[in-house]
Amino acid sequence: MGLLDSFEKGLERAVNSAFAKTFRSGIQPVEIASALRSELDKKAAVVSRDRILAPNTFTVRLSPADDANMASLGNALNDELLTLVNKHATSQGYSFAGSVSITLTGDEQVSTGTLRVDSSTAQGGTVAWRGVVDVEGKRHPLVKARTVIGRGSDADITISDAGTSRKHVEILWDGERAMVRDLNSTNGTMLDGHKITEAALPPDSTVTIGRTAIVFRVVAHSAPPKPKLSADDATRAYNLRDGGPLA
């Protein structure tokens, strides 16, 4: 039995036992469940190697007749849908930015027997990403296009490591991609154990300067800042990410 079959049959059993009622025409509860499952799979986005973010807010648009039929089943249908959406997310390794909500509503633009599902992430906003770095137990959001890290007080992020230069390394982030650049430091910069001068910076990678580890991550949030790189740096970041030349 495939996952979808299991998902649908699970809801079908729940609905039949909870409501003991079906409709001869129009939308069936199991079709709503299948549509929600499909929306989860379609909109799931890879945030990092260890996290796949899925939408957590769903609006199911039904014809007025179908909406009236579903409303007659009461809150139990919504409870079953919530349970099965959470189970499907768990089975697929999806995570949510907040609690899951499902709203069924009538829409004159939807024909009887059909439905439309709209979804969103992070309390009603579309999913957006923020670059952050974890340094010495503290998380720093990358709110600027260039973030300089070093032991100097004039660095954007100051670290207490005598083995680093005053302005040791910079992280460039344009809201979608990142790169790391050594700033002619004395002791050099390592990326995941390899010495670099400049390189693309994938999520969950570790930059090491002196004895300090800097972990770059991309996290979900609802209102992203939009730092802007210069045209040259944006092109270089794109080329570095896709394996293009460094120069």
What can you see in these coordinates?
The chain is an alpha+beta fold and 247 residues long. It contains five helices and 17 strands. It has helices at residues 3-19, 29-43, 64-71, 75-92, 231-241, and strands at residues 45-48, 51-54, 57-62, 94-96, 101-106, 115-120, 128-135, 138-141, 146-150, 157-158, 169-173, 178-182, 189-191, 194-196, 198-200, 206-209, 212-221. The strands form four sheets. Strands 8-7-17-16-13-14 form a six-stranded antiparallel sheet, with no helix packed on it. Helix 1 packs antiparallel against helix 2 (29-43) and helix 2 runs parallel beside helix 4. This is DUF3662 and FHA domain-containing protein. Residues 147-196 form the FHA domain. Keywords: Phosphoprotein.
Question: How is the secondary structure organized here?
Answer:
Blueprint: H1 3-19, H2 29-43, E1 45-48, E2 51-54, E3 57-62, H3 64-71, H4 75-92, E4 94-96, E5 101-106, E6 115-120, E7 128-135, E8 138-141, E9 146-150, E10 157-158, E11 169-173, E12 178-182, E13 189-191, E14 194-196, E15 198-200, E16 206-209, E17 212-221, H5 231-241
Helix pairs in contact: 1-2, 1-4, 2-4
